[in-house]
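User: structure tokens for this one?
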Amino acid sequence: MKKQNNKKINKTKSKGKNMTKEKEIRKSKQEGREKTKNNQQDKEKAKKVKKQEKQKENLITKETSFIELLEKKPESFNLLFETGLHCLGCAMSAYETVEQGCLAHGMSDKDIDALIQKLNESK
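Assistant:
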């Protein structure tokens, strides 16, 4: 009887070990899936941040110089010309900001803001 009981106990112990191993394996697999998911989310966040930084880099503000503007958005020349800013050939345009040039041509703050918005919307 004792031998049979010992065998049952040993079987129960080994079953318990197997169950524990199975739980560990399941837990490990779950952790792996979670890490993969987190890595994907991190990559997506990094991509988003990089895109935002690039947009900020190309953003035109009132403080942007005309030279900087033309380097960032060469196609903006036509929009500036249509707005009455023909000063891109002027020597002062190398030193003036968009705001300074606009004010020198009598544009209001509202007009300047509208121009900046159009410049940023243009591709």
